[in-house]
Amino acid sequence: MNDLDLKGKNALVTGSSRGLGRQYAMDLARAGANVIIHDETAMKSAEFNEAASGFQVAEEAAALGVKSMFIAADLADPEQVEQLIKQSIERLGSIDILINNAGGDIGSKTPRPEPNDSLDISVEDIRSVVERNMLSTMYTCKFVGQHMRERRFGKIVNVGSIAGHIPVTSGVIYAAAKLGISHYTRSLAQQMRPYDVNVNCISPAPTYTARFSATRTVNNEEGLSRLQRIAHPEDMSKIVMFLCGPQADYLTGETIVCWK
């Protein structure tokens, strides 16, 4: 990743004021890319004390010598998504890299659905999880994809989850939505192939973020190998940076599943 040179490239990372998205955005900036920091609101980054605001995260990225700014948008609303893309292009001139990171197992009125299974989960929570994961990814890909198709250039990295590749009894709708992103990635990649736009997906393993640490209890990992332990954000980011860089120029339609 230290050898990755993305100078002159413009990137949008959704959900990047916190968690894995913040790691991706900062690593893009370290590689020289200008980056749009995004979240639903400017204060989402303070929910688990990761940053004072999305604006502060943008300032941190700009301090690395690139252009960076924060834009808020609710990705469940396609009109707000369209405006996010329009504003990003107006401010940077183009979007060369899109990382669809925003998402999560998010209930309509609670941090996570409860119950969170296949049958007893509320209809409102089903809608919330699908909107926050699969539909938001489709909306963003639609508007950025049109821009990249016209320019005949771009890299799209969608973010799924390991949960979409194993049977689960909790977070079933979330897992199904994330697996849907993987198939959508494969199909979008085929459509974008004639326009030299790469579309790939990463399905991260469980990863230490502020939200993860605050909402889960991790068993003692002493004695486990590196590949058996909970991942750290930089572990997932190295894979994402590979997909954004020239080493992946001939890779499209793939999902990299990070098994644990």
Automatic annotation (TrEMBL):
Similarity remark: Belongs to the short-chain dehydrogenases/reductases (SDR) family.
Superkingdom to which the source organism belongs: Bacteria
Coiled coil: none
Signal peptide boundaries: none
Protein name from the UniProt record: SDR family oxidoreductase
Alphabetized InterPro entries for the sequence: NAD(P)-bd_dom_sf, Sc_DH/Rdtase_CS, SDR_fam
Lineage, opening ranks: Bacteria, Bacillati, Bacillota, Bacilli, Bacillales
Protein source organism: Paenibacillus radicis (ex Xue et al. 2023)
